[in-house]
Amino acid sequence: LGTRRVNDRGHLEIGGCDTVELAERFGTPLYVFDEVLLRETCREFHAAFRKAGLRYQVAYAGKAFCTQAMCRLVEEEGLHLDVVSAGELHTALTAGFPPEKIHLHGNNKSRDELIYGLRAGIGGFVVDNFYELDLLAELAERQGKRPNILLRVTPGVEAHTHEYIQTGQQDTKFGFDLASGQAEAAVRRAQRARGVNLVGLHCHIGSQIFETEGFVLAVERMMEFYARAVNEWGASLRILNVGGGFGIRYVEEDRPLPVEAYIAAIADAVKGEALRRGVAVPEVWVEPGRRIAGPAGTTLYTVGARKEIPGVRRYIAVDGGMADNPRPIIYQARYEAVVANRAGEPVEELAAVAGKFCETGDMLIWDTPLARAVPGDILAVFGTGAYTYSMASNYNRAPRPAVVFVRDGRADVVVRRETLDDLIRLDQIPERMRKEQH
Ligand code: LLP
Q1: Which residues in the chain are classed under CATH 2.40.37.10?
Q2: Which residues bind substrate (predicted)?
Q3: For residues 302 and 378, is the Cβ–Cβ distance under 8 A?
Q4: Residue range 214-235, pLDDT digits in tens
């Protein structure tokens, strides 16, 4: 996958870099990103849309993995950017990302976040609720602006990996409900508001999706609504954003579709519905996060303690865990791993990979086949590019790992490792508790 291979020393190599050397040079835990694979996936989205033959926009969903270097890469690959907070917006803007290619999401954007977006002149806002619609319109008018907006609609389709569920009334915090008429009221209110320019609709049906049916059903429902807004209420819509959710392979059993298959199905459905309902084919926007960042990321750890409970289980502990990858403990997410310095050796044992944090549930992988790992070995866990660094914490006061991009035998640090002093840089001891200085 990507530039991953076993080199002639029997070590795992990524981007032409020996991962054992990377671990030595930069320490562990270490997030390693295969830059070539990141770029290839961005290009797959472009290629898929060009093949589908319609106007499109691909916005990388920064929530999956957002750093300044990642924003640079995303811009270089001609993608737009979806941000969900002032923090992500700030990261992008300070990296020189063009504001007009950014849109801001979120179900409870603060006044400050809206103002930041307006001042920066971002490309648009995905408006989630009536409160935000009114607030944004008011703030924009005051600044003499009229930003483009999409309305986030919940179409009553929820997709999870293999199956999707259709729900009549959507019970979710996100977006304007379609079935109850909320979405219609939102369109009408947005049309009247002088401070915003309604240009399209948005929906997002879930994440880590392995089939196209959920997307197609969402498109059908959204296009029915879109056509009503255009034909009956005179809204000048031109964009349908179908969100993200394109799945990736974490473990052998996972069967994600090629990017092209998702996009072709979405494009066909949009074209068909537009024709059927007598509206011009809208621009189709997508917001992939996981699919771009996930497969390109590998986390390197150093193996420490081994614990064997005869007849029960073998544990090997690594120097990271739930602080750098909370996905197993939060979502029971599964991963695959190899012993990076024995990548050429046969798999010898089943081991459970334990983290080092003070919780029984801090397990990275349960019972995975591995070469026999001993203390000092380097363990590489695959598919950790999305929702790991971006969800990392300092639990147990663990410094957050460094992030490196590798390519053509070069490794560049894009986020430096936190130091112990970084951990206390925001701490303050009230005067009355200070120890007297001698
Ligand atoms: N657009 C919207 C409006 C979203 O809410 C999301 C993800 C995306 C795009 C990107 O979805 P993706 O292509 O990455 O599936 N922390 C969870 C995933 C949360 C996804 C939240 N929304 C995890 O680690 O699995």
Answers
A1: 5-34+294-424
A2: 290, 327, 331, 359, 387
A3: yes
A4: 999 999 999 999 999 999 999 9
Specify the ligand 1 atom closest to the Cα of 245: 15
Atom of ligand 1 nearest to the CA of 208: 15
Task: Tell me what the mean pLDDT of segment 239-265 comes to.
Answer: 97
Query: Does 161 have pLDDT greater than 80?
Result: no
ipTM for the complex?
Answer: 0.99
Atom of ligand 1 nearest to the CA of 206: 15
**Residues 351, 307 contacting (CB under 8 angstroms):** no
User: Residue 200 annotated as binding?
Assistant: no
Ligand 1 mean position to 62 CA, how many Å?
9
Q: What residue owns the CA closest to ligand 1's atom 22?
A: 207
Mean pLDDT of the chain: 96
**Percentage, residues of the chain above pLDDT 70:** 98
Which residues make up the CATH 3.20.20.10 domain(s) of the chain?
35-293
CATH architecture, range 5-34+294-424: Beta Barrel (2.40)
Instruction: Work out whether strand 12-14 and strand 5-6 pair parallel, antiparallel, or are unpaired.
Output: antiparallel
Given 17, 42, 203, 358, the catalytic residue: 358
29: preceding bond cis by omega (within 30 degrees): yes
**Contacts of 28 by beta carbon, 8 Å cutoff, 6+ apart:** 300, 301, 302, 319, 320, 378, 401
Q: Is 331 in the pocket of ligand 1 (CB under 6 A)?
A: yes
pTM value?
0.97
Look up the CATH architecture of domain 35-293: Alpha-Beta Barrel (3.20)
Clarify whether 358 is annotated catalytic.
yes
d(CA 299, CA 29) in angstroms, rounded, equals: 7
* Residue 295 CA, ligand 1 centroid: distance in Å: 15
Confidence label for 76 from pLDDT (cuts 50, 70 and 90): very high
